[in-house]
Amino acid sequence: MPGVLCVWADLPDDALDWYENEYIPDMREQNAIHTLHCERTETGFEGDPIGQLDSPWPLFAVYEVEEIRKATNSCYDKRNHPSDDMLAGPLAKARFDTRTYREMNRWQSDDWDGDASHITSVTALEFRIIPGKEEEVITWYKKYVAPTLTSSSDVLRLRLFEVDNATVLRGTSHETKEKVALHTYFALTEFATDDYPWDVVLEIAQNEQWRQYFESQTVVDWQISHYLVKRLYTAENGNGLAKDCDPSHLASGVGTSLESA
Questions:
Q1: Tens digit of pLDDT for each residue in 192-247?
Q2: Range of 124's domain?
Q3: How far out from the chain centre does Cα 224 lie?
Q4: Please, what sign has the CA dihedral across residues 99, 103, 104, 106?
Q5: Does 58 map to a domain?
Q6: Do 23 and 82 contact (CB within 8 A), yes or no?
Q7: Torsion of CA 34, 37, 41, 45, to 10 degrees
Q8: Is residue 258 part of a domain?
Q9: How far is Cα 141 from Cα 242, in angstroms, rounded to an integer?
Q10: Which strand (E) or helix (H) includes residue 210?
């Protein structure tokens, strides 16, 4: 079962070089097809409760994995953690929030060949739905929100995930978060540009069911953050390719297709 392993990190400045040039490349080599290393950017929702994820840290790494169970198990393998000396020393106040997500559905631009170097920014949306409403809301999300959002030529791909596991590494302390405390669903949208496609976002915001489910925060509890891609790590580029994406590779008329995992 494919999915993503996501790491939100809060690091001291003097650890960034190690993180970007040693830790992420090593983690990708052991666990992932490719990795997007991102940094949070403004969304306009910063003063609102929805404008901050449970893990509000500025650095966000997305590891593309083929088998989610293997990825979850890797979170407990100390070979995937910084050394004890680093955790007790320069990383004593650092924090790594790691979550694995199982893919449920994907919607992808017909004009995108899956080349991750085209991804300039990503949006992470996490949400939970009150009991008794899950099937109704998820069905509506799949039939309306996802196709509407991916009708924009700026959107390369949107994927809907369900959380599998969550851990927190803080200094030498490593703990597993209770699943009941987590947001159940995670939507990851990958863009060819560095901003939201506001035309379709505003269209969705005017939808009556969006207002009923999401805007009221009574049926769906949700939070969102937007990130710019700093580097792409693949098997071919070693320590990562700095991003400077030209979105002109996309044609003006982009269709979408739905695949169900």
A1: 999 889 999 999 999 999 999 999 899 999 999 999 999 999 998 867 777 654 43
A2: 3-245
A3: 10
A4: positive
A5: yes
A6: yes
A7: 60
A8: no
A9: 34
A10: helix 208-210
